[in-house]
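Thread: quick sanity check before group meeting

JM: Hey all, I'm pulling together slides for Thursday and realized we never actually wrote out the predicted structure for the chain we discussed last week. Dropping the sequence here so it's in one place. If anyone has concerns about the input, flag it before I start.
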Amino acid sequence: MLLKTNSFNYEINTHLLKNNHFTKIVKALILFYLYPNMIQIADIKRTTYIANGVPFEMVTVEKRAKEEGEYDFIMGDDESSYDYEKPAHPVAFKNDFEIGKYPVTQAIWEAVMGKDNNPSHFKGTNRPVEQVSWNDIQIGDKEKGIAAFLDKLNAIQKIKAKNLAEGKQFRLPTEAQWEYAAHGGKYWKELNYKYAGSNQLKEVGWDWKNSHRGTKPVGLKMPNVLGLCDMSGNVWEWCEDSWHENYKGAPEDGTVWLSEKDEDIRVVRGGSWLLSDEDCLVVGRNTANSDERGDFVGFRLFRY
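JM (edit): ok, ran it. Output follows.
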């Protein structure tokens, strides 16, 4: 069901609404005003891809800026207690991009890398894959003859053909892309939550208080306004960028930010099941070595 308010069209989750049509509308309006973070924009473009028989959904994240000189969002937080989340700065992307609705699951990992090559500690086809390093995803292990996950995914015939036709590839996100999507994309000003879809982590994510000390299957919590799940908590998510101690000199267009000095130190975002809610903020960031693996670190696909 669509609800129009101001300049937005919202899709109200009505799976709990029964009875007659009038009652549905009344209940939907009550839900909308009591729980505004339950809404999802109705006109988001979604695309389903197939990885060796396993489908996965990608969501298109649109630019907010329409004119030259405008910005898409403000990245970082000048009120943060941590210098590495400062300074807040405007970012204007060159293009729209796609992002996975969920973190990469073990089902997708096994479809690409093989069923005998699932390194996850907390097993489950619909749980996020973990214990995968940045290197495992991005460059592989040439000495052992193991290809990178992204190389194998992009080499799948139908995916390769679509990538060539559109000039795109599956990649890890840049930090700016990740934060913009977690904030809700072009709706970040109107719905600028602390976490990805709410000011209460328990509504949208898993931390040490509610996770029972492990990952959870994806999609059990409410999504953010773009329909993206598990961007706060569950598992940290790798970004392509090198780690920088602050945002001074960060790319204004949100492209990948590399460092020759610390090329083996990368960025993870979103927090995990192992940490408190304060470690799962949308603006929060952390560092990890590119070869580091842990049962609290996974990743999410981007395509651009």
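AS: nice. The two ends are 31 Å apart (CA to CA). Residues 1-19 have pLDDT under 50 and may be disordered.
JM: adding both to the slides.
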